[in-house]
Write a structure and sequence with these properties.
Layout lengths: L2 H10 L6 E2 L2 E7 L4 E5 L4 E6 L6 E6 L3 H16 L1
Antiparallel strand pairs: 1-2, 2-3, 3-4, 4-5
């Protein structure tokens, strides 16, 4: 991750999106990064590493397809 991408993504983390990957965001949890929790219980969490120039993406969904969709959308969101 370049310093420019990190700065842009850090700014994005300041605000909770109302929708993400076609899901309404029920809750934004800022305990460790930004965790977005959705209606169906699925979630995605983006967390800047404190020791490396990377963003870690964690997610949970009801299906493998849903998991791939959330993870892919998170990766795209980081770099847009």
């Amino acid at each position: 991750m370049t310093p420019e991408v990190k700065a842009k993504f850090t700014e994005k983390l300041r605000f909770d999106p109302r929708e993400f990957c076609g899901h309404k965001v029920n809750e934004g949890v800022r305990k460790d990064g930004l965790k977005l929790v959705f209606d169906d219980g699925s979630w995605v969490c983006c967390r800047l590493s404190g020791t490396e120039p990377v963003v870690r993406v964690y997610s949970e969904a009801r299906s493998e397809q849903g998991l791939e969709k959330l993870s892919g959308a998170a990766k795209q969101w980081i770099f847009e």
